[in-house]
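User: quick one, sequence for these tokens?
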């Protein structure tokens, strides 16, 4: 489903070039959970952003469902991100002025793929299944860290994406809340065959993945 070929990412600071990713290759099949581990500053988030079309590589290809995403127009890439790829970030990125339900529905409103009443019904079902049914009208400031992360996951799932990208999804949580979030991710993967790419520095968390890669000095190793 996703193929990465000879991926490089460089940043420039004056006359100095900082090589963050140095020729990565990766293949991910539908329904797999892939964990990418490494220390802070290794380039894990940079890699995830490139895989999801949020940042462009300096060199190389990211082929999603047989299309090189960096050969798409801006409009095509935006559509791909909205309809095919879900994102879950460490710091949630929920909109504080929106309720739980409004945050979850935001990607669906943007895509306009399905009637709003149908999508709203799906959102309510997801909220009930994840123990958030009574939090629908609450705002992010009224939720615990684990609840905020569950909302962020449901927002990433509302358009039924083919791939879910998770950037340190338990990094801000205590161990109990972190396990709840990972249980939800595993359940989603099992039920929907959604491919999950998880980046983390937590080796224990990575053990639940089908495959684990280590990002060191800009390259991936098993």
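Assistant:
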């Amino acid at each position: 489903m996703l193929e990465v070929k000879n991926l490089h990412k460089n940043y420039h600071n004056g006359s100095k070039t900082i090589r963050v990713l140095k020729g990565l290759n990766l293949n991910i099949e539908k329904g797999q959970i892939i964990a990418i581990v490494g220390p802070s500053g290794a380039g894990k988030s940079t890699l995830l952003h490139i895989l999801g079309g949020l940042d462009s590589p300096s060199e190389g290809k990211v082929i999603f469902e047989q299309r090189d995403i960096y050969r798409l127009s801006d409009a095509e890439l935006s559509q791909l991100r909205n309809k095919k790829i879900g994102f879950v970030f460490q710091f949630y990125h929920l909109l504080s002025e929106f309720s739980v339900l409004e945050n979850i529905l935001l990607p669906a409103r943007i895509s306009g793929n399905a009637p709003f009443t149908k999508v709203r019904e799906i959102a309510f079902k997801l909220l009930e299944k994840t123990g958030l049914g009574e939090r629908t009208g609450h705002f992010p400031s009224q939720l615990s860290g684990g609840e905020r992360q569950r909302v962020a996951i449901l927002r990433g799932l509302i358009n039924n994406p083919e791939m879910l990208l998770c950037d340190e999804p338990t990094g801000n949580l205590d161990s109990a809340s972190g396990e709840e979030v990972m249980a939800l991710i595993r359940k989603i993967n099992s039920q929907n065959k959604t491919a999950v790419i998880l980046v983390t520095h937590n080796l224990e968390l990575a053990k639940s993945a089908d495959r684990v890669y280590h990002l060191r000095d800009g390259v991936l190793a098993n």
